Amino acid sequence: MTSYEVAGLTSLQKILGNFVVYRNLIPADVRLPSIDDLRQQLNLGSKVLPRKADPQYASVVAAMLRQARELDLPRVTIRRLIYVGDTRLNDGTAFRNLCAAGDWPGWAFIGRDEMDRAAHVEIKGPLYIANRWSALRDFLSFVDSQGLALDEETAVVIDVDKTVIGARGR
After folding, report:
1. Most distant CA pair in the chain: distance in Å?
2. Helices 88-102 and 55-72: angle between axes, nearest 10 degrees
3. How many C-beta atoms surround the C-beta of residue 43 within 10 A?
4. CB neighbours of 2 closer than 8 A, spacing ≥ 6?
């Protein structure tokens, strides 16, 4: 049986601050633009809310990421992306669309705990797919070995709804 290390208690607020964007594309931080603020700029036009795997969704999130970086670290440009999710198809598509919208290279960690199977990692293009959340540490070493810097020019997107609150497979 695999055991996990407990690093202590914290909150999403302590980790992410208010740089959280809800499913409806309205950010928690009022300094960030909402989808309605960005509709005209991004030529979204309609009042339809794009789904997470839609390219329009990625365009909105990329604009929000740029604004968040400007607020957090003025004059620093996002040059690469790390994405953490729990579904290969939906999060993999969202990640690829976000890289395209931002014109960023990147890597995505797609994780889930499948304790009835041997630990396994599969690399499919820019997706690092693992059946153990504990492989996240190895993913970071892998990304570094691939030459993708993990610094202030790297945006990190975490699919919080399930990935952080209740990781798939737990």
Report:
1. 53
2. 60
3. 9
4. 115, 132, 134
DSSP output for 83-112 = EEES-HHHHHHHHHHHHHHHT--EEEEEE-
Strand partners, 81: 106, 155
Q: What is the reported pLDDT for 3? A: 55
Q: Which two tokens stand for residue 160?
A: 């919080």
- Spans in the chain with pLDDT lower than 50: 1
With beta carbons less than 8 A apart as the criterion, state whether 38 and 60 touch: yes
pLDDT of 105 reads 97
DSSP assignment letter at 21: B
Which pair of tokens denotes residue 170? 């737990």
Q: DSSP H helical segments within the chain, as ranges? A: 12-16, 35-38, 55-72, 88-102, 136-145, 160-163
Q: Which long-range contacts (CB under 8 A, 24 or more apart) does 125-132 make?
A: 126/95, 126/96, 126/99, 127/88, 127/92, 127/95, 129/88, 131/169, 132/2
Burial class (CB in 10 A: 0-12, 13-18, 19+), 35: buried
